[in-house]
Write a structure and sequence with these properties.
CATH superfamily of the largest domain: Histidine kinase-like ATPase, C-terminal domain
Number of strands: 18
Strand order of the largest sheet: 3-2-1-6-5-4
Number of helices: 12
Shape: elongated
CATH architecture of the largest domain: 2-Layer Sandwich
Helix content: 25-40%
Distance between the termini: 37 Å
Length: about 500
Amino acid sequence: MASFNEIVRQHTDLNDEQISHITKLIRVWNILADLSFADLILAVPVKGDETQRRFIVASNIRPTTGTTLYQSDLTGVVLHRDDRPLLEKSWSKGEIVEGASTTIGRGQEIRVEVIPVVYKGDLIAVLRREYSQNYVRVNSSLERAYINAFERLAHMISDGTFPYSTEMVEPDDAPRIGDGVLVINNDSVIQFASPNAISNLHRLGIHTAAIGAKLNQLGWDETSIQMASRTSNAVTEEIERDDVSVLIRIFPILNMGRSDGILMMMRDVTEVRRRDRLLLSKEATIREVHHRVKNNLQTIAALLRLQARRLETPEAKLALAESERRIRSIAIVHEILAREATDFVKFSEVIVPLVDVIQEATTSEDVKIEFNVKGDAGILPGEIASPLAIILNELMQNAVDHAFDFDKMKKNHEGAKVDILLSRDDSGLSIIVADNGIGLSENFDLESSTGLGTAIMKALVITELCGTITMNNGNTSGTISRIKIPLTAKRSGAQDTE
């Protein structure tokens, strides 16, 4: 099924501004559908011969306040002028027309109202309101108020004043018609208040009878309403009183370009805001934990460094230095997590300081190694990033300690290089660490290797990350280490949740 954008760009002559206007309408037409208790169908003229004018359905929406006539999506259905005389009449005259018709594709008798969609004086589309003539509603004050509000907005659509000229960005938690509606005239008098709107007023501490009262009599700040009327654009505001939060959406009603009242929707978002605050509090706590862990790890690393300086045994000094680097690699991950709102890190931000740690320890006239990082591992959860940082630290440190004959390379004017290649696809994460050194010894066997660094890598890759690791000689020189980690595997220590 073709999308809205595909339909309007492939089958119509509408320009970008006209398409943008229709897009704005679609973003808020859920309000129109709910106010009208009816299905809304947006049709645009197919480019071509005017004598054989056809329309194509670009989009449709169902009401939440009433019963829909259509279970399936109508997008892409072509409507012929001879089959839809009301559609043709509205388009030809540029007027709102009403009458009897049949449902699209089913032939059920229905009532139809066709509204021309106008932009800068040009007719660019038509909006069909369809509802069953057999469905009898109670003619309540709520229904009358909703239908009246819809008709006023419909006239604005045909005048080209709705949707409004500015971009109408609906908040994620924007109020719907069912959340509460107020209709206010130019004198700031409330003409209609739905039951849910009255409940929202009560939650804000306003218990005075609303209908017939002026907003200032209710203690209401009219600044946002005045702004909406003055600018002829929708305004969103959140009112907080005590522990209650109510989100309001203000739509100015225009008649021949002049203000003709206000349609206001209200939604109690108290619980939503409570959850937001709780989430922010949890995120702040998590960041603080990561920050403290990072600081503690850096303190431990500093203590190890001080201890190493007091030792005279080279083996002991080397062991402490290696331990310090492992701890610092973990601290790097926690430092990044402390800056983020989630438990995910961009791994490229981990690799750069990780390489710096290795280079810091190998900076001398006799030992110069060029590290090159290529590719991207994307965004990883902390539970993968932390052990992965340790693994890369071990591989890079192993290259520094064992891969190169620096005297020979200096004599031959060769440079020592370590390439780190990262790639990611649906199967998982791939890491290749390759150097141009002397390569592995003939009797080297990864499975039987007892080195501490190798043991750490195997434990982290195989046991914790459920991955694989291989180490082989390159085709011409050096060593190539390959690590493959599935990103969907269940990690060790993970718990089932119900």
